[in-house]
Amino acid sequence: MPQFAANLSMLYPELDFLDRFEAAAKDGFKAVEYLFPYAWESRELAARLQAHGLQQVLFNAPPGDWELGEKGLACLPGREAEFRSGIVRALDYAGALGCPRIHVMAGVLPSGTEREALRPTYVGNLRWAAARAAAANVDVLIEPINTRDIPGFFLNRQDQAHEIVGEVGAANLKVQMDLYHCQIVEGDLAMKLRQYLPTGRVGHIQVAGVPGRHEPDVGEIDYPYIFAVLDELGYSGWVGCEYKPARGLAAGATSAGLGWLKAYGVQNQIPD
User: Fold this and answer.
1) 253: which residues sit within 8 A by CB, 6+ positions away?
2) Which positions are catalytic?
3) Residue 151: other Cβ atoms inside 10 A
4) pLDDT at 190
């Protein structure tokens, strides 16, 4: 049976961020993930995790200037020093939060730049990050992201990501397989899972409905079947619930949409 983590950057949007830990625990989650922890002191986040019996299973390394549209630095020539500084900061937080993996966003192709021209920078940065993270017993994850949500993103397909992992050659560099992005770009999810999970190179899975990125029981993906495939393949990692509640900012919107989770042992406070 899959084990699910609440993505606190998307779930419980009606609550202040620090209050989302308690809400997730009340809804039966045992683990959380989110995009970035850096607006809060690590000791404050660690206290929330401990107070509510939660594990921190994933967060992202600093992405550059998010407000200006930067979505990672790993592929960008000339930004290596900033990239390395961000990895060091992320690993400091990972240690404080007991988090075993960090996601390193690839970045957006600069205008007029070919993807292959950036590949040496990307591979070199990942080699450095993986070596630094290995010393802290932390996995580094890379994630293919669809270009509908992030136009021009460097990494889009599962085969691209696995090829990069093979080229870098670090045991702690793995792929973050977000099935929402994978469905939009490639489809054929069950076969992709059967192809890549046995390699041991998938370090984390995330889910959301397609096309709206809402609850997994809404949209074109048959998630009960997909979760059965994960069981069939013996996947024992976490499945991040990285979706936008369909009811938006309404009070209790996230909890009201969690009925799909009850079949998997996560019991929330909303009656049937």
Assistant:
1) 13, 14, 245, 246, 247
2) 143, 242
3) 10
4) 98
SS3 68: helix
At 222-248, the pLDDT tens digits run 999 999 999 999 999 999 999 999 987
Tokens of 174: 């793995």
Q: Which class in CATH covers the domain with range 3-264?
A: alpha beta
Residue appearing with tokens 């060091």: 88
Cβ atoms within 10 Å, residue 187: 13
Q: What pLDDT score was predicted for residue 270?
A: 47
Distances (CA, A) of 132 to 89, 146, 203: 11, 28, 18
Pairing of strands 139-142, 173-178: parallel
Domain layout of the chain by residue ranges: 3-264
Q: Is the pLDDT of residue 127 over 80?
A: yes
Element (H, E) at 139: strand 139-142
- pTM (2 d.p.): 0.95
